[in-house]
Amino acid sequence: MNENDTVMIEIRKEQAEDRDAIHQLNTIAFDNGPEAALVDKLRISCKDYLSFVAVEDGSVIGHILFTPANMDDNSVDGMGLAPMAVLPSHQGEGIGSRLVRYGLDYLRETGCPFVIVLGHPDYYPRFGFELASKYQIHSQWEGVPDDAFMIAVFDREVLPKHGGVARYRDEFDEAM
């Protein structure tokens, strides 16, 4: 891939006509896992989701979803990143990184205090994610490895001083 190829990829908010392509993309990228159905379900049940796509020549080749997340005492609301997918034929081209950066920049600019992610510990720290346990924040799910549950903090003042449990929306429980 050369530098000119990067220019042809547009990152933008999901549009209604992207939904079938997003479903297909998540089905392919996650080898028929629960992610595609989860995205469809969240789109219906969650009014405050943010969904961005990477588009090349009119085709959706990448997708990222952010949905509301909160601390167990409901003292502060942030967002949860999941899922993020790129067509296998376009993986390794930096598209996922562009989607993550775009989404995080958007959320930071809109005043979101934090974003949680359950993901690969070698991938997400490059975007500012840190171990959530650094802030005494833990996943709602038992058995999640400490190095896989991370948080990008944009406003440290609103985080619970004594930590807590960060929770994705209930729909994620079925996919876990």
UniProtKB/TrEMBL annotation:
One GO MF term: acyltransferase activity, transferring groups other than amino-acyl groups
PROSITE patterns: GNAT
Pfam families linked to this entry: Acetyltransf_1
Residue stretches making up the N-acetyltransferase domain: 9-147
CDD domains: NAT_SF (cd04301)
Protein name (record): N-acetyltransferase
Organism: Candidatus Thiodiazotropha lotti
